[in-house]
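#random but structural
TW: two for the price of one
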Amino acid sequence: MRVDFSNTYTYKIYCLLATQVEDFISTLGIIVTYGIEFLKGLKNFNTTFKEIIEQCSRFGVSSLPITLSIVGMTSIIISMQVAGEMVKQGGGNFVGMLMAILTVREEGAIMAGFAIISMIGSSLASEIATMKVTEQLDAIKVLKVNPVQYLFTPRIIAGTLMMPFVVILASAFGILGGALAANITSDLSYKAYFDSVWFGLSMKDMNVCILKSLSFGFAISLISCSCGMIAKDGAKGVGIATTKAVVWSFVAIVVIDLIFAAAFFY
């Protein structure tokens, strides 16, 4: 009877779900464990400012072109869809306010987070995963250096500090892109657009955006480094670790965004 049941699709689906749940819980536990170890290691600060600056350049400079492109194009597309209809309905004076609130509260941070994950998060995961499968981390341990504190500290600090700057620049670029699209598609004047922007934005929106981007930067860098640390089985393991880092980072920023939306705007 056991043999027959083990060959059924029900049993196979059950095994697949059980494996996925086990992997989810295991990965979450590893990320939390590494996060606690990183926080404990901050008092020793086993890194240099040169390493932090190098990682800051990686987060804040290398990622800017793709980040600005994604946020800018998304804002242009949304403004093209919205501006014409709002002007027809007599709501042209609210186009800038709508685009500003949308960009600052959600789009700028989310799209910038996606860009950082795709370019920087995957790079961090593959870098550390390669060090893991080639036994470079074992060599670091032989030198009596904690690889978590040594590798995580500059990357997480840089990611946490630079993410707000990237998000602010991306949001400003997105608002400008929205103004350009609104002017071209609906002949809405730049003055009317930007007057509406300043009317709609508040300091609460900006403060929440900065706080959210700090959380995004911390989560992306921690998850990417943690997934790299658990890589195994050679080149195949590097690919699996990189994919896991990207997927987990996407899920994390969406969950964090939901928490912020419920806490500050519900």
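TW: number two ↓
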Amino acid sequence: MKPYVSVAVDGPVGAGKSSIARTAAKMLGYIYVDTGALYRAVGLYCHRNGVDMAQPDAIASVLPEIHPEIRLIDGTQHIYLNKEDVSEEIRLPEISMAASAVSAVSAVRAALLDLQRNMAKTNNVIMDGRDIGTVVLPDATVKIFLTAAPEIRAKRRYDELCAKGVQTTFEEVLADLNTRDYNDSHRETAPLKQADDAVLADTSALDFEQSCELICNIIKERL
């Protein structure tokens, strides 16, 4: 039996990792795994329960109470938190910042590591996040670092939030994005960085369809 194919897609916030990786997975017949959603679920729990995000020990202490799951329903990924579907709520801006805070805690990353790796052992997957190619799947079949200019990423995220009816401004979205970029790349545990053997994919000048085609082509060329 041929070994399962694992594709690691890393990159900064707002690079379109989730939407592009999800579409590419569908085009290739792979399972899409949005690892960032798991951290968002942990962040949501901490946000709801008033956990001090500036205290790693406080975050680590509630981990036994948090049970995130990835479920595939009609081919679409849903995120469950303690058996509640929170797929929409975890996308709110305040939960983005909470996710950034909890993802810097080594105990959180360790708790979610096996869950992520097990999915790659039993499926052909495209998995996206911040440290997939460097930490979660260091032996991934294909590694891609997906990025775009900060202003481009902020505009895409701003349009996405507006479409969902979220009240915000482009300036606020750009400021949040720059903060998360700094936090993600400077944290002690598994900082955001391009793996040495990852292919750089800059989509600044590409539309969504072109970006998906680029990712699929990179994967096919390396199989």
